[in-house]
Amino acid sequence: MRFTGALSLTTAAAAWAATGLMATVFADGAEPAVKVLTNSDFLMWTKDQSLALVEFYAPWCGYCQAMAPAYEMAAEALKKDKIPLAKVDCTAEIQVCDDMGVEGYPTLKVVRNGAFAPYNGTRQEASIVDYMRRHSKPALQKIKPVHFDNFVDSGHIVVVGFVDDNEADLAALKSVAEESFDEYLFGYVSDKSVAKKFGVPYPGIAVFKDFDTRKDVFGFTRDADRLRRVVRSSSIPVLGELSVQTFGTYVRSGIPIGLLFYDGQEMRQRLQEEFLDLAIKYKHDVSLALVDARIYHKHAKALNLQSKWPAFAIQEPAKHLKYVFPHFRVLTAEKVGDFVGDFVSGKLEPNFKSQPIPAKSDAGVFDLVAKQFNEIVFDRNKDVLIEFYAPWCIYCKRMAKAYADLGETFRGNPNMVIAKMDGTANDIPSGDPGFQFPGFPTVVLVRAGDNAIIRYNGDRSLDSLIGFIKKHAVHSSTHEEPVVIEKASEAQQHVYIEAPKNALGYTPKETRHIEL
Questions:
Q1: Residue 294 pLDDT > 60, yes or no?
Q2: Which residue from 364, 366, 367, 368 is spatially nearest to 408, judged by alpha carbons?
Q3: Beta strand ranges found along 171-235 (DSSP E)
Q4: Distance CA 120, CA 156 (A)
Q5: ω into 310 cis (within 30 of 0)
Q6: Is residue 296 exposed (0-12), middle (13-18) or buried (19+ Cβ within 10 Å)?
Q7: Within 10 A of 417 (CB to CB), how many other CB atoms are there?
Q8: Are strands 107-112 and 52-57 parallel, antiparallel or unpaired?
Q9: CA neighbor of 90 nearest in space, from 73, 75, 108, 112
Q10: CA separation for the pair 181, 343 (Å, rounded)
Q11: How many CB atoms lie within 10 A of CB 165?
């Protein structure tokens, strides 16, 4: 960790927090578990903490309300560890939240003596407690045999190397421990009798966890990539439940997710029994998970699934790709197994939602759809400015006239394309992180020549948009003769300016109307 200066909510938890019942926990005058910070004491308090966690929230934010009970209980549990938890109301303490670059709610940051880093755990009490306790210790700890049982019981997922205490054997383990510090507890023991007691080869690796198999055992490896893969695959439950609380764990594993949607407990039970063996077979390649379609129907829709259950799709979050099991086929473990096997073998093509290709028009703004995306956007001879919008977005509607005028302004330049794309009706058929965005409208320029992706951060006026094009585009004149750009070098082909990522269960500060 580097330190620097729509989905439905759990109704009961949200109601409990929203109705103020939390306040009764401390009605007897005891010190509140969570410290309330303001503009006046924020800097001094955070500078004095060797390790603490701060939540930036808004009282109206549903996700904040849902997390409140878990946050309070985690604060109470961490008192004995002397790790304080605090919170800042960003609707009241505006200056602090602006200074901290808060873009949405809730935002959680780990603080050490005034230096901040993102909190990368989930929002459950156990996860918060485990995460903060882990950060109070070294990334890789040497375990004394007498303390071994306590160590493996001290975290949700604990990785132990049974190896000799030498630099060559510890290098890969230490490397993975340092990069995965936010997620797992790492240690090593050099006593062969401990390995024998727990049925682990020496040298070897064991992943202890408090779910499904409880322990996964592997042969020792000095290959950091292989070690990373086995640890991450073991961290995901075999045919677990995917929800707003667990989604981040699946995404961080880096393993594609196979989502089995159900719409009732009877169907869930049947799927769990029928697909368990398949989930075990492919656990290192695709993490199969059960998803309640009654709660997460919006996510099903985003995967291009019809509202017919059960249904199955494979999602690759890192690449923003999805593969849909055909709805006309009967969903059985055998047929889904063939589908997953084809995916692992690279035989499947991803699915993209797209509007029909529109009829040719001489309008100044080009109506872009997914079916034409790569052809239009990555033409190296042209600069392409794209507005991603939603028909219901009030900010998009306010910007519509200025954007239409922008199209007319550059109508005479054949090497400048001013385009717009309905982000609710079209997928973006590109895994480039430059096309990730937190809300509507989002405007990006794909520059001629090197296809660099540059995000627009100005206001929604015509003058500001023109100024952006003048500054960043290759063909920035309002009238220009066709010019052929030479192909970019290999080093230039993947240049982009990254856009912010939108986390599941996160309310953007400005675009609060976005459907998550």
A1: yes
A2: 364
A3: 185-189, 204-209, 215-219
A4: 15
A5: yes
A6: buried
A7: 22
A8: antiparallel
A9: 108
A10: 31
A11: 10
The pTM is what?
0.58
- The b-or-e profile of 79-96 (16+ CB within 10 A means b, else e) is eeeebbbbbbbbeebeeb
Q: What confidence tens digit (pLDDT) does each residue in 372-419 have?
A: 999 999 999 999 999 999 999 999 999 999 999 999 999 989 999 999
Give yes or no for a contact between 47 and 113, defined as CB atoms under 8 angstroms apart. Answer: yes
48 pLDDT band (50/70/90 cuts)? very high
Q: How far apart are CA 446 and CA 453, in angstroms?
A: 5
The residues annotated as belonging to the active site are 61, 64, 393, 396
- Ramachandran sector of residue 82 (left: φ over 0; alpha: ψ -120 to 50; beta: rest): left
Say what the pLDDT of residue 30 is.
61
408 contacts: CB under 8 Å, gap ≥ 6? 364
Long-range contacts of 389-395 (CB under 8 A, 24+ apart): 389/420, 389/421, 389/422, 389/423, 389/440, 389/441, 390/422, 390/423, 390/424, 390/440, 390/514, 391/422, 391/424, 392/424, 392/513, 393/440, 393/441, 393/511, 393/513, 394/513, 395/440, 395/441, 395/460, 395/511
Instruction: Say whether 344 sits in a helix, a strand or coil.
Output: helix
Q: How confident is the model at residue 29 (pLDDT cuts 50, 70, 90)?
A: low
- Could you tell me the end-to-end alpha-carbon distance of the chain, in angstroms, rounded to an integer? 27
Give the SS3 label for residue 418: strand
At residue 424, φ and ψ (nearest 5 deg) are -90, -20
In sequence order, the 6+-apart residues with CB closer than 8 A to the CB of 71 are 34, 55, 85, 87, 123, 125, 128
What is the 8-class DSSP label of residue 81?
Answer: G
Helices 265-281/333-344 angle, 10° precision: 40
Q: What angle do CA 194, 195, 201 make, to 5 degrees?
A: 170
pLDDT in tens, 51-90: 999 999 999 998 899 999 999 999 999 999 999 999 999 9
Helix 11-18 to helix 62-77 angle (10° resolution) is 80
Q: Output the six-digit token pair for 113.
A: 């003596």
**Which residues, including other chains, have CB under 8 Å from residue 442's CB and lie 6 or more apart?**
387, 388, 423, 455, 456, 499
Closest to 333 measured CA to CA, from 385, 417, 274: 274
For residues 10-20, one letter each, b for 16 or more C-beta atoms within 10 angstroms of the residue's C-beta and e for the rest, the string is beeebebbbee
Average pLDDT over residues 491-499: 33
> Can you spell out the DSSP letters for 90-135?
TTT-HHHHHHTT--EESEEEEEETTEEEE--S-SSHHHHHHHHHHT
Q: How does the average pLDDT of the chain come out, rounded? A: 84
Q: How far is CA 403 from CA 332, 362, 385, 462, in A?
A: 49, 15, 10, 7
